[in-house]
Amino acid sequence: MKAVILPGHKQGYRIENVPDPKPGKDEVVIKVNKAALCYRDLLQMEGFYPRSKYPLILGHEVVGIVDEVGDNVSEFKPGDRVTSMLFVPDWSCEYCKTGEEVYCKNRLVYAQELDGFFAEKARIKASSLVKVPQGVSDEGAVIVPCVAAMVYRGLKKAGFKAGDIVLVTGASGGVGIHAIQVAKALGAKVIGVTSSENKAKIVSKFADYVITGEKFSEEAKKIGDVSIVIENVGTSTLEESLRSLRTGGKVIQIGNLDPSVVFNLRLGYLILKDLSLMGHIGANKRDIIETLDLVKEGKITPVIGGEIKIDKFEKGIQLMKDKNRYGKILISS
Ligand SMILES: [Zn+2]
Ligand SMILES: [Zn+2]
């Protein structure tokens, strides 16, 4: 089968024909319907995860059909449509036992310690799989584990309440355009912030208010008291995000598009406005299941900016780096 392989740390990628995977104990092999590109894939290619087990197959967002099941797998059978968590927890540590497996110390991450999903087939641990409900499209499922469910848990963690005003930066991007919809589905009023008039057109389909440009805090404050910012960009927008917040507001930091830039945080500003700056790692299995239900109910519509065949993987990377891109970029075989 064809796959996108990273041969070693900072050694680029190759499209290779590799043997089809076979399921081991507690594993299944799925036929990949769609996978999706993510900034983490670009960071992995740039070498930000040096302890990865190379060579590896890239990609950690997937939906597909169970093709074969290994020994000891009873929950899934061939023909089931599934998506996967981004990692495999041990399900036995103190965090896993309290439903916060995203903090598991022994977790194994797809496309880092385990092969990922940019391939025709993928070998997946059954314990990380989630069945995709009927009525949810492949596009609707593939955006859930890394994007929509991640935002869903972030809002819960930030103490979101229906009626809160939520501001989303990078609002047309793969995370932003779905973050708007998750917040709306939970009852928020949403301000989308984007960089160009062209992208504002897409954002305005989903957000209640759209602000275009780099200096957005004054306009945001005129709209109302912003309780939460979902920050998808990083150092270049964070200062304005902090300024946009009401007293006691929270930033959920998700994006870090340029990891080389250091942000100078004025602590006095945080203290005097009683602000919280929260890191956010991702979703638990329960969040994925609950978010798939929101997709099923039609409250979240996948926004896809392109679908690229594995052979043309380079085009997908170019699209990810294109400033005019919107939505998620999918990879299929
Ligand atoms: Zn991702
Ligand atoms: Zn654990």
Describe, in plain words, how this protein is organized in 3D.
The strands form 4 sheets. Strands 3, 5, 6, 9, 10, 17 and 18 form a 7-stranded mixed sheet that branches. The chain has a 6-stranded parallel sheet with strand order 13-12-11-14-15-16, with helices on both faces. It folds into 2 domains: 2-143 and 302-332, Quinone Oxidoreductase, Chain A, domain 1; 147-279, Rossmann fold (3-Layer(aba) Sandwich), CATH 3.40.50. Helix 4 packs across helix 10. It contains 11 helices and 18 strands. With 333 residues, the chain is an alpha/beta fold. The protein is globular and about 60 Å long. The structure holds zinc ion (2 copies). One zinc ion binds at residues 89-90, 92-93, 95-96, 101, 104, 106. Its cofactor is Zn(2+). It is an enzyme of class 1 (oxidoreductase).
